[in-house]
Amino acid sequence: MRTVKHFIVILIMIGISIVITQTMDDSNVGVFLLIGITGIIFFNLTIRSKLSMKDYFTSKYNILTSKYELKSSYDIPHDLLFDKVVEVLEGHGYRKVKVDKEQGLIFTPASISFKSWGENLYFTLTKIDANTTELLFESVAFQLYSWGKNEDNANGFYSKLEESLII
Amino acid sequence: MPIIVNLDVMLAKRKMQLKELSEIVEISSVNLSILKQGKGKAIRFTTLEAICKALDCQPGDLLEYSEG
After folding, report:
1. Distance between CA atoms of residues A154 and A9, nearest Å
2. Closest-CA residue in chain B for A78?
3. Element holding A107 (H helix, E strand)
4. Using an 8 Å Cβ cutoff, are A106 and A90 in contact?
5. What is the ipTM for the molecules in this complex?
6. I want to staple A108 with a disulfide (CB 3.0 to 4.6 A). Which of A77, A94, A98, A161 is the partner?
7. Residues A114, A115, A116, A117, Cα dihedral to 10°
8. Best CA proximity match to A5, nearest among A110, A151, A161
9. Chain A interface mutation, best of B7, B21, B39, B46, highest count of A Cβ atoms under 10 Å
10. Distance CA B17, CA A68 (A)
11. For A70-80, how does the pLDDT look when each residue is reduced to its tens digit (9 = 90+)?
């Protein structure tokens, strides 16, 4: 299913490239379009590590990022799960982990790969009751299509978290 | 869960802090807290062995089965 999705995206990209190439012959519209998109991508990359920009990146109106979210509930107290998530991230090579314990927010950037410019991973923990915590995982890639990187980030994180609960 | 972890009881008997045990067995205090509260998915034999050695106790002192 994912391969079919990738194939459709490749066809759309080829189509857009043809349209841009044809408009570039006529005017500078294509050039301005390219400069605009490139500028926004670089702007996103510059401010990506700011925790305060979470709402901007995860907003559904930000059409230049692709988003993926997964909500799960754990039978673990809020503070303990918070520390556990940070430990899992730091123990598996995620650098620059930023936390805001008051808001129950954890952020870490995923590194650049051949598939993407890197993604922002956000973890929001909400206390349901004394022993139950809801964990919202959000992965944001700075491109229109993540090529499965957001889903890979989610699967990778959850398998590491589950594995770490075997003590 | 019918399996009760009595790590806190054993720590109190040995007058040892969780942080101290964490340093001896080389398991993070977050993991030991999860274990202490019975929130872990499973426990490794190596972990059980290390805790038993550090607290000078038997596995049965740490784990208890209760039908209730």
Report:
1. 21
2. B34
3. strand A105-109
4. no
5. 0.85
6. A94
7. 0
8. A151
9. B39
10. 41
11. 999 999 999 99
Q: What residues of chain A lie within 8 A of the CB of B35, using their CB?
A: 167
Q: Which residue of B has its CA nearest to A75?
A: B39
Instruction: Please check whether residue A167 touches B, CB under 8 A.
Output: yes
* Structure tokens given for B58: 């038997």
CA angle, B10 then B11 then B16, to 5°: 145
- A40 vs A54: CA distance, rounded Å: 16
The residue-averaged pLDDT of A14-43 equals 74
Q: Model-level pTM greater than 0.95?
A: no
Banded pLDDT at A85 (limits 50, 70, 90):
very high
pLDDT tens for B18-45 read 999 999 999 999 999 999 998 999 999 9
